[in-house]
């Protein structure tokens, strides 16, 4: 049986004659080995012909291994390197790591150690993709079984969490060929989730076996920490989906111990309703009744979130936390964020810092207006990547590091997520109807029930009557609403954009994460 070719390796060692058993063992495994007895020859070989991997001995006469490594990286920056040395000194390991060495082996090494190092470097991605493929295919049936078992809210969070995990996995291993199967399963799950929401939501409004919802954020996640005498920062990342938060974990887990609980966005899954609910601790019909000026703002669709600080102060008073020193801030622009980060020390004497950050929401809306952003964020994977890149280099991460160092407990959540829309659906409405793309508020609204949850009695859903005989339409699946006289003008512009306000797992199942500083 012919040995499978595994790659071409350059081995640089001034005692290469002593390594013949190792070379023969690698050749038997399918590697093509080229040897050099000094750094200069090795670099010359690498410049003349392509290699998949270099093995370099540290202690060589003339040019040593570290110098060889540096010069090799100058001419072949993408070539992965395994360093082999007799020394166990930490400074040498630090040097090698700083030069992006893939592996560090301590002599004496046996042939199997060298083989395993080569295999890990050269075949890691392939092995991980194969594992991802087999892992998802095994879990596919488990998810299908859970979908057919009438899951509870906790069950839906578990399903969503699993699907998000595989989306992130496939972001890293895009050659599995299973992306379409996963997308179909997510679509199927969303249809079942719509039934779950339609069947249960009106009961939850009156408190029957209600899941944790976004208006529970302060009493459940913030107030208990304040009562324990801890300083707390509530960070609301507007429009952050669960998969977005999971991409931030790479940076956060080195700073905090993180516990993630599920939370359910309100209907409509949009900022005027869900974010005001977080700060007021109420369903929308309740905060509109208590604060009549909010009704006017929502009727005019202007300044719909301008009372949030008042809402929060009042909620703290109802929770017997009126004496808490509160700092409240909303940040829309990068310049505002940078300025905030430079002055964050001025606010650290607060008991509660509440910060709203709008970047993720702004990115979603700006994408539909910009061809450049549509190229950068073509789909959900691109959206996750953009959020991750922003956060890694953002003022916000610097603020979080400061909060960690000063002992703040940080609660991170979102008011709602978003979904990429694909199907335009015509609705009948009058001129007073709201402008939402995934939800409509007005009167005499008409739409096929297949495409929208039609709410004729708003109070059953905890919603206000903003006009006489108010109706609401809440989009299902990946639907977006169009008016007949504007169909051709807006259909192409809106299709494939990220929108919110409707019923889907990505819009409604949001993380409520409690971050405790690592010591």
TrEMBL record:
Pfam families: PglZ, Response_reg
Organism: uncultured bacterium FGYC_13M19
Residues recorded as bearing 4-aspartylphosphate in the entry: 57
Gene Ontology terms describing biological process: phosphorelay signal transduction system
Highest taxon, organism lineage: Bacteria
Annotated ranges, domain Response regulatory: 8-122
PROSITE patterns hit by this protein: RESPONSE_REGULATORY
Family matches, as CDD domains: REC (cd00156)
Keyword Plastid: no
Gene3D superfamilies in the cross-refs: 3.40.50.2300
Name of the molecule in the record: Response regulator receiver protein
Keyword terms, alphabetized: Phosphoprotein
């Amino acid at each position: 049986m012919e040995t499978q070719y595994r790659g071409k390796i350059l081995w640089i060692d001034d005692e290469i004659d002593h390594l013949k058993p190792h070379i023969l063992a690698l050749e038997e495994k399918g590697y093509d080995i080229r040897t050099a007895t000094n750094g200069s020859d090795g670099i010359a070989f690498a410049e003349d012909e392509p290699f998949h991997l270099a093995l370099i001995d540290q202690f060589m006469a003339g040019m040593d291994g570290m110098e060889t490594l540096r010069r090799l990286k100058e001419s072949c920056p993408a070539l992965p390197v395994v360093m082999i040395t007799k020394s166990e000194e930490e400074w040498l390991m630090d040097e090698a790591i700083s030069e992006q060495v893939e592996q560090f082996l301590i002599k004496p090494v046996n042939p199997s150690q060298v083989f395993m190092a080569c295999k890990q470097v050269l075949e890691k991605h392939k092995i991980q993709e194969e594992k991802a493929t087999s892992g998802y295919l095994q879990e596919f049936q488990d998810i299908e079984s859970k979908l057919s078992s009438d899951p509870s809210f906790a069950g839906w969070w578990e399903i969503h969490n699993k699907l998000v995990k595989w989306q992130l996995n496939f972001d890293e291993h895009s050659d599995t060929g299973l992306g379409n199967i996963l997308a179909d399963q997510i679509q199927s799950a969303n249809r079942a989730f719509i039934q779950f929401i339609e069947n249960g939501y009106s009961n939850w409004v009156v408190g029957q076996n209600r899941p944790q919802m976004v208006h529970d954020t302060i009493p459940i996640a913030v107030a208990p920490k304040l009562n324990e005498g801890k300083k707390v920062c509530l960070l609301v990342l507007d429009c952050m989906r669960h998969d977005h938060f999971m991409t931030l974990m790479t940076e956060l887990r080195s700073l905090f111990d993180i516990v993630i609980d599920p939370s359910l966005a309100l209907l409509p899954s949009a900022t005027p309703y869900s974010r005001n609910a977080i700060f007021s601790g109420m369903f929308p019909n309740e905060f509109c009744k208590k604060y009549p000026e909010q009704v006017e703002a929502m009727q005019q669709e202007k300044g719909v979130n301008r009372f949030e600080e008042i809402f929060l102060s009042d909620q703290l008073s109802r929770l017997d936390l009126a004496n808490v020193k509160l700092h409240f801030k909303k940040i829309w622009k990068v310049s505002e964020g940078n300025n905030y980060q430079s002055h964050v020390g001025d606010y650290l004497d607060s008991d509660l810092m509440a910060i709203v950050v709008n970047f993720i929401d702004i990115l979603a809306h700006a994408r539909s207006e910009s061809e450049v952003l549509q190229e950068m964020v073509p789909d959900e994977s691109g959206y996750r990547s953009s959020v991750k890149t922003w956060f890694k280099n953002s003022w916000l991460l610097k603020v979080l590091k400061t909060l960690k160092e000063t002992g703040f407990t940080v609660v991170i959540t979102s008011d709602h997520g978003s979904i990429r829309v694909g199907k335009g659906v015509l609705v009948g409405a009058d001129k007073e109807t709201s402008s939402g793309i995934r939800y409509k508020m007005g009167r005499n609204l008409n739409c096929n029930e297949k495409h929208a949850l039609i709410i004729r009695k708003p109070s059953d859903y905890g919603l206000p009557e903003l006009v006489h005989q108010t109706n609401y339409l809440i989009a299902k699946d990946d639907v977006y609403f169009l008016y007949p006289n504007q169909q051709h003008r807006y259909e192409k512009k809106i299709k494939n954009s990220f929108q919110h306000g409707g019923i889907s797992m990505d819009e409604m199942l949001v993380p409520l994460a409690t971050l405790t500083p690592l010591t």
